[in-house]
Write a structure and sequence with these properties.
It is a single chain. By secondary structure, the chain is mainly α. It has one domain. It is built from five helices and no strands. Helix 3 packs across helix 5 and helix 4 runs antiparallel to helix 5.
Length: 138
């Protein structure tokens, strides 16, 4: 069932990783940049130059998520666009958003619900868009 690596379109994976990086960059770099600092309790701290890991880390993690989704989509035999979208919603909410909330519930995140609400749209959108790419571009 999970012997599907040879069935994965690796160009689709690269396209999905690129889409993920663009969505994340726009979302966190532009749309929620200031509220994100509030969610982290850092709104009054001076701006610092982001470390390279700030850019490379999310892209690498996104690549792992995309490859995992590609494996699951093939193993489950998802071929229809509607099923791909539903898969993206289930993974987005069931894993990505839920895990974000779980991670945020600790003393280092002063506003875990707000933090999750800021992250959720990006993670859900990214999951759906990458699932669409992987489903349509088999």
């Amino acid at each position: 069932m999970f012997n599907v690596l040879s069935e994965i379109n690796w160009l689709a994976v690269l396209a999905a990783v690129a889409a993920s990086a663009v969505i994340g960059g726009v979302w966190f770099g532009v749309v929620v940049a200031k509220p994100y600092l509030v969610a982290l309790g850092r709104q009054n701290e001076p701006a610092t130059k982001p470390a390279p890991l700030t850019f490379v880390g999310p892209m690498l993690a996104g690549a792992v998520i995309v490859v995992t989704s590609a494996v699951l989509l093939r193993a489950l035999g998802v071929e229809a666009l509607g099923d791909g979208i539903l898969f993206g919603v289930i993974v987005g909410i069931g894993y990505l958003v839920a895990m974000t909330f779980t991670i945020a519930i600790n003393p280092n995140f002063p506003r875990p619900v707000f933090y999750t609400l800021l992250n959720a749209p990006s993670f859900l959108l990214t999951s759906v868009v990458t699932s669409i790419i992987l489903t349509l571009w088999r």
